[in-house]
Amino acid sequence: MQLEKDNLIQVKRLSSDDNYYSNVFKKTEKLVSVVFYVLSETKMSPSTETHIQIIKDRALKTHELSLETLMLQRHELHEGLLRFQYGLVALQSTLKIAEVARVIPEDIALLFADQLDAIMRYINNHYLSKEGVSAIELTEVSIPRATTRPTSKGSGSPQRQRRVNIPAGDISTDAYLVYSQLTDRAERIKTVLEAKPQATIKDIAEVITDVSEKTIQRELNSLIEKGQVLREGERRWSRYSVQK
């Protein structure tokens, strides 16, 4: 006997969220894989054996926790994601200790730290953040719209697009809903930089998810040449701000 469609209840889990799957789960999976690859290339000795085993245990636990988050429902998000974040912090701390003990090279440890930090910030900004103004409040202020206004002759002319005004430091999902409506890539990047000065490319990529980091880098280089954006630092330590 088939149940009528009206009697069926849809249960949406985090695994159906494409952004979470790509920017959190898959990145965690890739990170854990790289950790194991690095450990496989690390020379085993009495002084490194304990560190290597602890890192392996932490990495496997982190991957297990990330798998568990895929089954979370909306009412379970907060508690489940906090458990996952604790696993990420535990792995980050273990890797830091291994770096100090010279089990893992400093540059590799820095790479791991950057990736772990990016995953945690993405979770905070898009799933756990409760601060910032709502999308409705922002749209009432300055969402760009292609509307027309009558002239004295009765003809319509397109209204000039207005920049979105995002409160400083607000890289929340609600803010993203607003500035994602900007179709000009350069304007979107500048809007993110206005909201979060001294942002890295990874910060920008967490918000503008429909293009690659390489594309964002090319756009930033163009804005720098035009004198609209400032860069401080070199390579992966570079931070960007809007030229005032």
Structural class: mainly alpha
- How widely separated are the two ends? 68 Å
Note the overall shape.
flat
CATH-defined fold name of the largest domain: de novo design (two linked rop proteins)
Strand content: 5-15%
The CATH architecture term of the largest domain is Up-down Bundle
Number of strands: 4
Helix share, percent? 55-70%
Short key terms for the protein model shown above:
mainly alpha; flat; Arc Repressor Mutant, subunit A; de novo design (two linked rop proteins); two-stranded antiparallel sheet; 2 domains; 244 residues
Model description:
With 244 residues, the protein is mostly helical. The chain has helices at 18-40, 46-69, 77-100, 106-128, 135-142, 173-179, 185-195, 201-207, 213-225; strands spanning 148-150, 156-158, 229-232, 239-242. The strands form two sheets. Strands 1-2 form a two-stranded antiparallel ribbon. Strand 3 (229-232) and strand 4 (239-242) form a beta hairpin. The longest helix is centred in the N-terminal third of the chain and has 24 residues, at 46-69. The chain is flat and about 55 Å long. The chain starts with 17 loop residues before the first helix and ends with a strand. The model is unreliable at 131-164 and 170-182 (pLDDT under 50).
